[in-house]
Amino acid sequence: MRIMDVLLPRTLDEALEMKAAAPAAMPIAGGTDVMVELNFDRRRPATILDVSRLPELRTWRKEDGAFFLGAGVTYARIVNDLTMFPALMQASRTVGSPQIRNRGTVGGNLGTASPAGDALPVLAAYDAEVVLARAGGVTRALPWHQFMVGPKKTVIAPDELILGARWKIARGPGSFSKVGTRNAMVIAVASLCLLFDEGGRTVRVALGSVGPTILRAPDAEQFLARVLHDAGAWDNPRVPVPPAAIEEFAGRVAQAGRPIDDVRGTAAYRRHACTVLAQRALTWALSDRKLKETR
Amino acid sequence: MSTKVAERTRGGVGESVRRVDGVPKVKGQFLYGSDLWAEEMLWGYTLRSPHPHARIVSIDISRALSSTGVHAVLVASDVPGRKTYGLEIPDQPVLAIDRVRYQGEAVAVLAANDLELARRAAERITVAYEVLPAVADMEQALRSDAPNVHDFGNVLRHIRIARGDYNTPADVWVEGYYETGMQDQAMLGPESGLAIPAEDGGIDLYVATQWLHVDRDQIAPCLDLPPDKVRLHLAGIGGAFGAREDLSMHLHACLLALRTRKPVKMVYSREESFYGHVHRHPARIWMRHGATRGGMLTSVYARIVIDGGAYASSSTAVIANASTFAAGPYEVPNALVEGTAVYTNNPPCGAMRGFGAVQACVAHEAQMDKLARALRLDPVELRVKNAVSTGSVLPTGQIIRGSAPVREVIRRCAAIELPPAPSERDPLTYPGGAGNVSRGERLRRGVGFAVGYKNIAYSGGFDDSAECRVKLFSGPGGVIAEVHSAAAEVGQGVHTLLVQIAREELGIDTVVLHPADTSVGSAGSSSASRQTMMSGGAVQMACRAVRDVLFERARRAGLDRELAPDIPVAIRDGQIFAGARRVGALVEFLDEPIEQTRVYHHRKTTPLDRDGQGDPHVTFAFAAQRAVVEVDEDLGLVRVVQIAAAQDVGHALNPQSVFGQIEGGTAQGLGFALMEEIQLKDGRIRNPSFTDYLIPTILDMPPVVSVLIEEPEPGVPYGAKGAGEPSAIVSTAAILAALRDATGRELNRVPVRPDDLIGLAPPVQSSGPPPAPNVPYPEPVPKALGIL
């Protein structure tokens, strides 16, 4: 009795052809999500497509003011090498244990599309698009929010694979924070990424684990951009931002969340945590801007 | 003949000897139960109940039986002997009979060529259930309108300990209500074993367990085999902490192996493991303490209810422990303790490190802090003032006979230097750790103190003896001693210790361990901090018996003069010495090996009487801890900064192992204080995985600064007390106290959640202690009724 086929493509083209021939095949890279699903008997795919050997997915590159991160890049490599993206590094550092970070990939976060995926709020704050490919050299790129449309739900077509994520490189401070009930190796109860885009004069905030999917806080973002504009803080980072405005911003961030009670935490706590994380992240970013200015 | 203890040989008693199993475990070469393999073996799998309470209308196994690769499917009617088993009371069906009483109860087992086939075939077993109303709450279980979990009712055991008048007038009264959650042992190796049918019709079971012989005694009647046809062999154990006291896959693998005539292996997944073993009892505890203005305890009232879940397991002993330790290690002339273990349709609870004393300690230490506040006394001094010592009378009337250096334990712990406030910090060291949530905002430091104690060995009149066989023989590389003991090495280091004792007693370096199995007598359980005393004592006795034979041979060889009774004889470096004179090499007297078997018994104890009076415990070990915590007051996240620990160990036979036990027990207590809880809803486990059942990581564990208080226990081997449990008892209470100190909040439930620490969730409330059930005797109800 045959229990499962495992396909082992060596190149991207080969993988895409296999996927076209067997659209039900489940892609696996690091296996840190898929193997859990198999072990818990939640999924029994007839075919598994191992994409961990594809060199095309294990790369990153700058592309004309944008950055492309291959779906097969592990969190360990991001933590070690991608110093130009501190928030992504911070998010990657919060993923699991060293062993998990050695295996787990950003492509896995995208493919699983869990609202608790640690890299996802960062990609959302980057306004990243997800690059998909199918056999015959056909690729398409979707904004992150059009790609992930619900809890563990994406619009990827059965014959497509995730190539990676791409975003415009923005200048400005920012950070990623994750709250869990243990000091490491924990699934987010709430997470937040805040980024300044000095060029675009915007601040972007994305939330994880407080809704069916990753959420942005557009109302809070616009409010803050206005506050910084009115205070003249875009041009002069040393202009103080009133504490009341920071508090107001944090409250508006929390309003963007749509948390629920579950085994990991209560909705009330999640909402509260969003407020605190927003307040802290903004305070840190404002102080980093000042610091940069004085240097 | 007077013999003095042998001269110090390398690796003897008192040294931090490297573990005998250390290197293979670190290198990944150690064979655990889950690594067992046999030619042509099958894989067993268990079908479990999805319902907390239901009647089984019908079971159809035909589709499963005809599935590819399936060799057998068994249900209750296939159990050849007794249909139920149990550690204390045989109330648990081997496979469910007509009714399931908890979610996860075993209904059917099957064997197939591999695990995946077995899992798929199990889905083809059709069980029709009629769902029944479930008792999902321990206080609900006590109400008269509650459904009965067992036909005789929901009270498993009720203990009443009464001494003096608990209403005696006092200057100050403090009251409190406390709850503790259901903790899992979370041993890293799940349940595993391999059953091999033997040609004599019997069975050999290789299994990771805490007590081979009590397993055998439960297995044999169910298989309808004489005990000598059920041979158990200890498989490599990946942690136990009480989870391996009850049977899990043992009987199922044996039944399948006997039916198929093939070896059958069973290994639980992590999820199944949560359903496949008992847990720490959730408890609800009401307490009222009275004291004089000067701070002397006058009275303690305690009402304790613990949730035993669907089957008895060791709940009857756990409630006895929780009740006898309810007042803490303090002198109190008047006490009333009422403890009840109830049946519910929750997962069964039983043994876990600390065994009832953990829950009691959470409550009595919170009460001592409340009392100190009410009296404006230093909490440490209040504890010193009331601490028991040798000669103290406990609420049970038991007089502490052994060493009880409680005041020294408390003072030495309090004297450990507090951690300095760090100047520059790695963000990883803030509460929230790797989550990058803090740069030091709203940090509050708190300090908490707790004292507790634990009985060593089994209590209440039970004679849990330990046997050991020692063989001394001349081997290729010199004289070898072989130690044969059935003691389970659960990671605590007993195997290393047995070797150390044999070296010490026989004065030779080369000691080997015979594999632990049932071809030697029972060693008793690796539980209750007892193996150092019990199996340690048995090895010591057997070695001394071997030595007596050896000296007798030397005497017969014409060395009477040297071995005159007044000359001290000793062995060192493989030589026998009479005084300073060498009388010959050991090997000269070992043409025939010497083999001696001895059984160690602890002193006799008695059960509790109707008023909870008696002499129930063999002896006690005490511990104190001081916890320093930091709380992020905005996020309710915690970092424990330091644990200062002092423990009464009698005599540290392997100091490194003792420190390891203190640190490991502290980690488990820390987990219980901050994160570890099996969350239940309507009798169902919501988090049966290590994704959502969190245990501490290295970033959660602080440095543990330990001091050992060595006041030898009279009348036990080397004066040593077991060291496995006391730290696990006090660390939860100490951390809880530190969190209260940091936040100023009541925090009367563990584990403490972020919501509790920032005031999003109120303290747990109670309308008062439930009335005591009408059980006028201390025996377990089903036993007293003669039902089981």
TrEMBL record, chain B:
Keywords: Oxidoreductase. The keyword Membrane does not apply. It comes from the Bacteria. GO terms for molecular function: iron ion binding; xanthine dehydrogenase activity. SMART domains: Ald_Xan_dh_C (SM01008). SUPFAM superfamilies: CO dehydrogenase molybdoprotein N-domain-like, Molybdenum cofactor-binding domain. InterPro entries: Ald_Oxase/Xan_DH_a/b (IPR000674), Ald_Oxase/Xan_DH_a/b_sf (IPR036856), Ald_Oxase/xanthine_DH-like (IPR016208), AldOxase/xan_DH_MoCoBD1 (IPR008274), AldOxase/xan_DH_MoCoBD2 (IPR046867), AldOxase/xan_DH_Mopterin-bd_sf (IPR037165), Xanthine_dehydrogenase_dsu (IPR017609). Residues 27-133 form the Aldehyde oxidase/xanthine dehydrogenase a/b hammerhead domain. Its EC number is 1.17.1.4. The keyword Oxidoreductase applies. It is an enzyme of class 1 (oxidoreductase). It holds the Pfam family MoCoBD_1. This is Xanthine dehydrogenase subunit D. It comes from Candidatus Segetimicrobium genomatis.
